[in-house]
Design a protein that fits this description.
Blueprint lengths: L11 E2 L8 E2 L7 E6 L6 E3 L3 E2 L5 E2 L4 E4 L2 E4 L3 E2 L2 E3 L2 E3 L2 E2 L3 E5 L4 E2 L1 E7 L3 E2 L8 E2 L3 H12 L6 H16 L6 H19 L7 H4 L3 H12 L5 H7 L6 H18 L8 E4 L3 E7 L9 E2 L16 E3 L4 H10 L9 H17 L7 E7 L2 H4 L23 E7 L13 E6 L11 E5 L9 E3 L3 E6 L3 E6 L4 E4 L1
Antiparallel strand pairs: 1-2, 3-4, 5-6, 7-8, 9-12, 10-11, 13-15, 14-17, 15-16, 18-19, 19-22, 20-21, 21-24, 22-23, 23-29, 24-28, 25-26, 25-29, 27-28
Helix pairs in contact: 1-3, 2-3, 2-5, 3-5, 3-6, 3-7
């Protein structure tokens, strides 16, 4: 040709809109030729044989032979699934095979006499790029005291690197990444000042949040469900992120850390000074200031009221108590107080750390406060918003446990159809006997709602959502 258009080699195809040629990969026993359709890649199959590569039979109890598909009566046929050829296997027995190309470990598939082949179990496969992390995790599991700031920085750097370039995770990848994140968050939450890894590595928090976002993707739900049958899973990760947010809030001022916001596909982390005298600045995250594009499902925020933070300011700037014993002196004191208040800089602004999780609500175990007086469960309980997690550190006296006035949470609803009687909830790590916690509505109530948004008020600070 003289048009400059590229063509694929024989036995290759190029999907529409792509600029890469892929091998046809026709299964020689099931196909009539090695060539395939130049756009779809569909091979020419023998009778009864299906699949793009002609490697499956339309009857689940049949296997491919040179004559086409033939039914196997005493077990499950040789079959191709999940990138693996499974051998002919007797009913009631499992087959074990190496994990698919690009991963390590053993995949299992059971042959049922009622249903034939069950779905392949690839949970224990580990993507090859995760193998170093898997070894690191096993080492820490044997001796967690080996955790250090250097380890911490290296782990999140590596986690971000392998999760960033990986479109698909196996169960073991998610489990390994989650356990390593737990080690890092636990270690960092015990540090202070310039010992925090975020003070030594400018990309630490970004690597941390990006790795967290990757393994909290909705696509990992099946893996988390399996992990959570035997361990805390996402509830533990949430608790460790909450603890780390607390540590960050307490150390922002003493380490001169500048406010920042990290935006990812499934998480937003924002650290900022809280100026409650300005309503715009009292809402976090400040979506109007975010330059990057972010999923609309993350557009949920928390509004902090002009509450006891203001009284702290007054408490801190009142130099001595007023006494009734000497009226003229009292007046002098009051005047000097006013002057002093006027001259002294205002008390330092509190620091807020807010994390928004897009899909964590769907990944957390379905556990609820057993006390029905404090939680009215809908018929089909579903978390229908992002989770907003908040912590505030005030340099003055600590905030009271019950906030008055309360904080306000503004959520974008994920599903707008068939959603009646919403309940404002928070994840209470202390309820339920399993030790991982559950959803409770104590101290929270619906403020107002429309078809796409809902507002809640809560008198404490933790991780919130809407059922």
């Amino acid at each position: 040709k003289t048009t400059g258009e590229c063509l694929c080699k024989d036995n290759h195809y190029r999907p529409e809109g792509e600029n890469t040629c892929h091998p046809c990969g026709c299964y020689n026993i099931g196909s009539l030729s090695r060539a395939c359709d130049p756009i779809t890649g569909q091979c020419l199959c023998k009778g009864g044989v299906i699949g793009r590569q002609c490697n499956r039979c339309d009857n689940p109890f049949a296997e491919i032979t040179p004559a086409g598909c033939e039914v196997v009566y005493d077990g499950c046929p040789k079959a191709f699934d999940a990138g693996i050829w499974w051998p002919k296997t007797k009913f009631g027995l499992p087959a074990a095979r190496d994990c698919p190309e690009g991963s390590i470990g053993t995949a299992i598939r059971h042959c049922s006499d009622e249903k034939g082949w069950l779905s392949p179990e690839l949970f224990n496969c580990t993507t090859a790029t995760f193998s170093h992390l898997k070894k690191l995790n096993e080492d820490l599991h044997r001796n967690s005291s080996r955790m250090s700031s250097e380890h911490s920085k290296a782990i999140v750097r590596l986690l971000h690197s392998v999760t960033n370039n990986n479109p698909h995770f196996y169960g073991n990848d998610v489990k390994t990444a989650a356990q390593l994140l737990n080690y890092v968050l636990k270690y960092e939450s015990q540090q202070s000042g310039f010992n925090l890894s975020a003070m030594k590595d400018a990309e630490f928090n970004e690597n941390l949040v990006r790795a967290g976002s990757a393994i909290l993707d909705p696509d990992t739900k099946e893996h988390w469900d399996q992990i959570q049958r035997s361990e805390g899973g996402t509830a533990n990760l949430l608790r460790y992120f909450e603890n780390y947010a607390n540590t960050l809030a307490q150390n922002v001022r003493k380490t001169y850390l500048k406010p920042f916001t990290i935006v990812t596909e499934n998480m937003i982390l924002t650290v900022d000074y809280l100026d409650v005298s300005n309503p715009e600045k009292a809402t976090l995250p400040r979506f109007q200031d975010i330059q990057e594009t972010y999923p609309k499902e993350l557009a949920s925020s928390i509004h902090f009221p002009v509450f006891n933070l203001q009284t702290h300011v007054l408490k801190e700037t009142t130099p001595f108590p007023l006494t009734q014993t000497n009226p003229p002196m009292e007046e002098e004191h009051t005047v000097s107080d006013r002057k002093r208040r006027h001259l002294e800089p205002a008390a330092p602004l509190p620091v807020a750390v807010v994390i928004v999780y897009k899909s964590l609500g769907q990944l957390l175990p379905e556990r609820y406060d057993p006390d029905r007086r404090s939680l009215r469960l809908p018929n089909r309980p579903v978390i229908n918003t992002a989770i907003v997690s908040a912590t505030v550190h005030s340099e003055g006296p600590p905030l009271p446990p019950l906030l008055d006035p309360p904080i306000t949470l503004e959520y974008t609803l994920l599903e707008t159809e068939e959603r009646t009687k919403p309940v404002c909830v928070f994840w209470d790590h202390t309820v339920t006997s399993g030790g991982v916690g559950g959803w409770s509505s104590k101290g929270c109530e619906v403020l107002n709602r429309n078809n796409s948004h809902i507002s809640c008020q809560c008198n404490h600070m933790t991780s919130f959502a809407v059922l």
